[in-house]
Amino acid sequence: MDTEFLCLKLSEDQLQCSICLEVFTDPVSTPCGHNFCMVCLRSYWASSSHCQSEFKSPDEPPFKRKRTVANLKKHKLMDPVENLEDYICQKHERPLELFCRDDQTCVCQFCIETDHRTHSTVPIEKESKCIEKKEADSVEIFRALVGCIERSQAELLEVMEEKQKAAESEAEEFIKEMEQEITELKRKNTELEQISHTEEHLHFLQVRVPLFLDSVLDVIMDPVTAHPDLIISYDGKQVRDGDTVRNLCGSSQKFDEYIGVVGKEGFSSGRFYYEVQVKGNSEWELGITKESSNRKGKIKMSPENGYWTMCLRNGTEYRALDNPSVPLSLSQPPQKVGVFVDYAAGLVAFYDVGARTHIYSYNEQAFTEKLYPVFSPSVFNEDEIPDPLMITPVKQCTLNPFM
């Protein structure tokens, strides 16, 4: 174990001059083994009157220079530690002053000359500072990441709060609208209850009849448009299937496959109403059609194709030929059907005249051209000859319940 290592176990008291009480400067030893600074000993030797011993050399005391101890003063001291063995190389018994980056372990000066000769080594202090810097950078990155997450969380919470407030506001507005609608329905229900219990039924009818007297239309069927199988009455008020194709002149207005006929008079404004007797028919179809609607080939009856109609199929199946078609549930088969049209409002409504009930309505339709009544009776059947569809006069007492 060399002198440099021995110095690690020396205390500061062992390196102090007992005369000047400072660390040795040019230390020397006396024959008795005491150590002093050369300057201190010479000064004390020259001024002391207490020493009675004579030295063999009259000129100068036999001082022995302590080169080894002097070198100790230049040696780098280590900070005090509890477990010194942990900081000493177990193989070379030298201080662990270096760090091997290849093996990630602390080594001494002798280690880098042997086992770690080709490895990358740096002073422990440098490696420690490098690690501290990396840790500081990691902490800074972590703080930045935490800050970013906190900001994102705050923004998300703000967006969620705004959406929640908007949803609550919409819900409150919807609730208010529903409450207003419920209030209005209750008011109307109260009025209807009062009207249903009134004894002046004639008054109930008469106050509304004048509003619709001008809506009654005198409908006459146009033979020019009728399918060749159809037979139109002389006055143009009845139509039935004759089961015989007649040689009538061809016309672009005539139906060639659809068993139908339209009215002579069309209209492009105002309101009109007419009634058709449908009893005695297991199948029929009626309503209105626009002037430019197709009348050739197979026709799909729908508003998109210019037809607003309702029908009876197989004797019991009532449908509104909307898109898609709508099944209709009627309490009893209608004997007479009323058709009301309000051109400006885009309304086509059907009513059971006998029961005075509403059947179906096409609402908010966009009419842009003339409209015509359209009729289609049951196909002729030898087992059961159907009655003709008949346009009937409108009585005043039947107007009000539908309007």
UniProtKB/TrEMBL annotation:
GO molecular function: zinc ion binding
Domain called RING-type: residue spans: 17-51
Domain of life: Eukaryota
Coiled coil location: 149-198
Keywords: Coiled coil, Metal-binding, Zinc, Zinc-finger
Gene3D superfamilies in alphabetical order: 2.60.120.920, Classic Zinc Finger, Zinc/RING finger domain, C3HC4 (zinc finger)
Domain B box-type: 84-124
Domain B30.2/SPRY: 199-394
Record-linked PANTHER family: E3 UBIQUITIN-PROTEIN LIGASE TRIM
Name the record gives this protein: E3 ubiquitin-protein ligase TRIM39-like
The organism of origin for this protein: Astyanax mexicanus
